[in-house]
Write a structure and sequence with these properties.
globular, 7 helices, single chain, Rossmann fold, alpha/beta, about 180 residues
Length: about 180
Amino acid sequence: MGAVRRIVVGVHGSLGSLQALRWATEEARERLVPLAAVSAWIPPGGDFAERSHPSPYLRKVWQEAALKRLTDAFDDCLGGIPDDLRVRLFVERGDAAQVLVDVADQPGDLLVIGSGRRNPLGRALHRSVGRYCLAHARCPVVAVPPSALMDEMRHGLWPLRGRRVLVPDLDVPELPGE
């Protein structure tokens, strides 16, 4: 990988994107380069529905909601936007994969994305942002895997199903009057 001049990270609030944000922030600190955090948004109902009945007010509401999700991700992940880094926030309308590839178009960019695991239905219904970025980005792409804790959280309580839990016998003194 050549000289990295800027790190671009996709953030939408999922656990995988928070892991990518954490990794990208540390990498930007180590390399002393700016961090560009990108959040893409599409109107509820899709672009076709919004274009047939455009509303500048609703566009502003949706864009502000996307900006709030982006700043909330920094709050949840890092306790706020870091003071020791140059951070630029991008809130762009469009498909997340295309927006990320478009923003990470400068020489020296490094694109960081979260890689999560989807169930078969999720794979069938949604295009993979990671695959699109890997195929179309003009810069190196790093796909940050989910942490072990995130992987466990994804499975919920299913791994515990069917297991017996041993609880030690405790000598509990009897209360007076029993």
